[in-house]
Amino acid sequence: MYHRKSLLLIGILTVVVIFSSVQIANAVQYLPLWDKSGYKIGEYGTVTVQDYKQNTNMQIKNSIYVTVKSNSFEHGLTLHLLETEINSGVFSGQIGF
């Protein structure tokens, strides 16, 4: 099962992030978390995911992948999220709009 979260970009398009490697049952908060509610063309958005079960190696920064889709780019692209600190279970990455 996939979990989806939409983000409305101001007057431009809607972006949906789909992640299959992160299960909502394992998540601390509703996922993903964006750094703000809307973006303009040329800005970068940060996606942050908290999932302690994806912290598979406590000695290194782990990584996960999410798929970012929009209403104008339905095939989407894969976004790599890197653990923010060793053994944190918090993953973050940026995407340009």
UniProtKB/TrEMBL annotation:
Protein name per UniProt: Uncharacterized protein
Organism whose genome encodes this protein: marine sediment metagenome
Lineage: unclassified sequences, metagenomes, ecological metagenomes
